Each structure stands twice: as structure tokens, then as C-alpha cells.
Amino acid sequence: MKNTSQFLLLFVMMISLFSCDQKEKSNESPTTELQDSLVTEYKKTSEDELFANHPNAKKMKEIEERIDPNNRVESLYWEKQTKNGSQFTKVAAFINDDGQPMKITEYFIDGNFQPQGQRHYFLEDNNMIAFKEQKDTWIDSLNTMYTEKRTIYQDNAPVLTQVRSAKSYIEIEEKKWKDIGLEHHSIEKVNNILSGEGQFQTHFISVIKTDQLYLLLGEAKPKTEERYTTAVRVDEMTPFIEDLLQNLDEYKFRPVYIQFTVVGGNNTPEYRVLTDIKWKEKVKI
After folding, report:
1. Rounded (5°) CA angle 22-26-32
2. Is the CATH number of domain 201-279 3.30.1380?
């Protein structure tokens, strides 16, 4: 009987302690681990919805659906030698029925073990309404981190910028977007690449002779030795080309106007092939 009484007393004490402990926990702040998780998930969902519900985000999606891959304008393929190796860039503009660009995509490689990827500029009436960047960044010599950023614009100003990252693009859809500080992006560079202005004006530099003939074009007198250059393949020996080959030193750094077509691609080597060429009016440089 004594043992039974002791057992009952011990049981009552345990129940009392458990009740007190539960009471204390009920008085604590509700930010438990589970609640924190739910709040975080709600916040991530809200951030995604905040972007998706913006009118210009909807226009961005509409542009993607309207794009005809065959209705585009390709730029020359530019290279620059830097301390980090060769940088490469080219641009494609996707055109609407009125001949205006809806989207401009810049393809870039910033050098050996440097970021590489694509930047997409979404336009309405030649004004930017949205921007998206997809890039791989080297963590070490074997591994990269895949990152996506997106920005919504309103009245030519950024109003929302978000980012998400994963070990590879295959895993990116599992990641939630996060708000970051607003980022502004300019279309000046891609427009210059498309129109051949600024650093991307074409001047004759030299020729490259392999089993094919190529014209090497680029900046005439860059501020540094890091000059942007590009090459076009010559498939037809015209009087202009014959004269050029006979006066290489005389014509060096002279501004030239060219037209070209893009051949190859789709997992085959891609080339810019010359279709027309003439000298521009010579200007002081």
C-alpha cells in the first residue's frame, strides 16, 4: 500500500510538472519552428505572386508566347581579349509584326572561369518593361552556381528585382524567388551591338586566310589594348574584296559598312558570311 501511494504521488507530480511546462510553452511567442517555416513559405509565395501579378510581368509572358524564332535579327559575334581570357558577346532581336523589337537577348561569356549566360530585355514601344538574366558563375574549377535574376520596370524605372539560385538549371524551378535591392539595366550596349555603334563600329583590321578567307573587323583605336573584334567569312571574290587584298596596309582601320547572313547553328558551327560591303565615309578617329 505504501508503494502504491508513493507511485500515485510520483504520478501526480509528473502530471503537474507536465501541465506547468505546457502552460509555460503556451505563453511563449508563437514563432515556433513550424510557424517560422510556414511564414517563410508564405513570404516566398507572396514574392512570386507579387511579380506575376504586375501588369508588365504579364506583358513579359505574352511577349515570350508571341515570339517567332524565325523572325529575328542577329548581330555579329564579338570577341575581346582581356586578362581573364577571351570575352564573347552577340545579340539577337526578336521582331514584332511592325518591325519593332519585342525582346533582345544578349549571349555572353565574360572570360575563363567567369560568368556566362544570357540577358533578356523585354520592350514595348522601345521602352524596357522587364529584364531577366540567366547565368552560370564558377565556384571553383569544377563547379558552377546557376542564378536567375528578374526585374520589372514601370515608366523606365525598376520597381521590383528578384533572384533565385541552384546548383544547376535543372534544379532552379524548385527554388523560390527572393526580393533584393532594385537593379537598373541599360539597353545601350545591346543596341550598339545591333546597330554597329560605339565600341562595335566595324573598321577593317586585317584578313585571316585558312581554307576560307575571313575579314577581321573591329575597333580602330580603342582606349586600351583590349579591342573588340569580329570576323566575317568571304564566300565570293568581288572587285571590292580583290582591291582590299591588294591594299591591306592602306585600308587598315578604315570604317566599313557590311551586311551578312548567319549560317550554321543548331549544334553545328555558326558563321557570319559576308553578303555586301562598302567603305563608310572616313572620319577622324
Report:
1. 105
2. no
Distance CA(249)–CA(97), nearest Å, equals 44
pTM of the model as a whole:
0.80
User: What local confidence, expressed as pLDDT, does residue 227 receive?
Assistant: 84
pLDDT band at 220 (very low <50, low <70, confident <90, very high): confident
- Over residues 97-142, the pLDDT tens digits come to 889 999 999 999 998 889 999 999 999 999 999 999 999 999 988 8
CA dihedral for 97, 67, 151, 266, sign (positive or negative): negative
**In this structure, what C-alpha cell is assigned to residue 167?**
546548383
| CATH 2.40.50 intervals, the chain | 201-279
Question: How far is Cα 49 from Cα 187, in angstroms, rounded to an integer?
Answer: 27
